[in-house]
Design goal:
The protein is mainly α and about 190 residues long. It is about 75% helix and about 0% strand. The longest helix has 24 residues, at about 20-45. The protein starts with a helix and ends with a helix.
Length: about 190
Amino acid sequence: MASSSGDLDQRVAALLAAGNTREAASEALRELGPGMLRYLSGLLGDTAEAEEAFSMAGERLWHGLSTFRGESALKTWAFRLAWSAATDLRKSGWNTRRRRLDTDEAEQLSVGERTESWLREERLRLSLEQLRAALPLEDQSLLRLRIDQELSWRECAEVLSSEGERVSADAAMKRFERIKDKLRELVQAAQ
């Protein structure tokens, strides 16, 4: 059973106070890593890109944890590192091609023994993923942070804030509303 964010913050702070940075980083990655990887996988839409971004974020967490000031929750800081790694990866041109279904995924989609409800759910999921992919990366990130990771508006704003440009919780909420409007427009245009 996963512990609360506050419990993790306390455990990591205690390990850091005891001078055990290595175990603190391991604890943080053990607890937050799966969620970070899911976030990056959904955001980038490509397993290799997500793993590369996760590797970058994990390394940044590992090296930066000793200087973490605790001005935000550890989870928020870790997802900020993941967001930064994703944008850095995209800026670097590491992989600019669109994600294609691999053979296993294509076979799974064509298997006739799946139930109709599964097919409906899968079509909906793929449609939603296509709609998300039509949005700018920043908008995709906000959707995934708020909906998939269930971060608060304040935490979403902290993750999306860049070095020189702060994002407020109110601005994140307003942006989210605009994204929902944009998604409605895309759905109507597709019908």
